[in-house]
Amino acid sequence: MRLGDMTMEKLIQIRIEEEIRNAADEVFRRNGLTTQQAVKMFLTQVANNGQSPFDNLFTPKQQ
User: Fold this and answer.
1) Which InterPro entries does its entry note (predicted)?
2) pLDDT tens digits for range 11-24
3) What is the pTM of this model?
4) Cβ-contact 28, 35 below 8 angstroms
């Protein structure tokens, strides 16, 4: 996000199992990305599109 010429960034920290992190790192590396770049791309797409690729994975409970 830009405010004038000043870029405002927030730090996001997550806890994840080492095996999952290592496997994801390898997938991203093969595609020329770091995990940080991939996560930033993911969040940018969610913000730009107003939806998540996970939206269709979950069905609301019928009442």
Assistant:
1) Arc_rbn_hlx_hlx, DinJ, RelB/DinJ
2) 999 999 999 999 99
3) 0.72
4) yes
